[in-house]
Give the backbone structure.
Amino acid sequence: MPVAPIERNDHAEPNAEAFIFGFDFPADGVIHKVDWKKIKPTAACPPAGWRWLHFNRLAAETREWLEESSDLDETVITALLQSETRPRCAAYEDGLLLNLRGINHNPGAEPEDMISVRIWATQNLVISMRSYPVKAVHEVRDEVASGMVEYPSPGGLLVMIAERLIDKIEPVVDQLKDEADEYEETLLSSREKLPATTLAEFRRTILILRRYILPQREAMAQLQREGRLLFDQDHAMHLRETGDRITRIAEELDSIRDRAAVLQDQVAGQRQEQLNSRLLVLSLVSAFFLPLTFVTGLLGMNLEGIPFSHEEWSFPAVVALTFVLGVALLGFLKWRRWI
């Protein structure tokens, strides 16, 4: 039976309300939306079935509820509220601590500014935390609310969230691959100039994504090893496929990074070639005019006794001499294949 979730906080702010949405999954299979006012004074785990609660990590009320009412272990609370963390998965007592990263689709944000999703999962409870809205989590919420998920379980919910997060990462990586193709065509085929700032920003995006994707690959592998109690055979198969996808994404990012390094070398080579070309022109000009400058400087000295200085033909002779010398120098440079 489809249900409409309670959604109170579409825009993450430190002073926004803590509770975003929640569902109860009783044994009879009928999904119920969580009434936060009723469950707030109680422990997080439901008396029967299992429960999914999604919170705004930045809200002060979230910390207050976790510490005073949730009945969760202090270590789990600390992990969920940590300000900075990389993707990881760790087993703790009867549950799993899972940190994943998703693409930032919020207005004004860059996709590579990936958002953290913190999850504590047991056989009867899933608590997820975020600082800013995560589109992948909201898509999972909509599927659950519409009744599209058959026989939901905590393990299945983790698999769905992981799959949706990766679904949002793949288009970004594909776009980076297309950009690398365009840059290669620009530099290697048409020999056009590529602004240094463009390539630097491109490499920065790749490095930021790799910083989170590589640990996320390890977290997915750890989830497969540590989460056997939460996953049935079908969930385990989907989780392996999800792990393979994140591995392919990581390998694709490594390939794009290597291509970006080659592009950087190509840009540096073009600049060095341009600099060498300009230095060659200056050197040739200097070499061409150096003998002529010597002759004119020698004859221009203000000294008595310069031969034929009072003859009418002396100036035309000097002009002719410099012309012949210039032609001889030009022939010499051509003979040496310097020009």
User: Anything to note?
Assistant: Helices lie at 36-39, 60-68, 74-81, 135-145, 154-189, 196-226, 233-299, 314-335. Residues 1-15 have pLDDT under 50 and may be disordered. The CA atoms of residues 277 and 283 lie 10 Å apart.
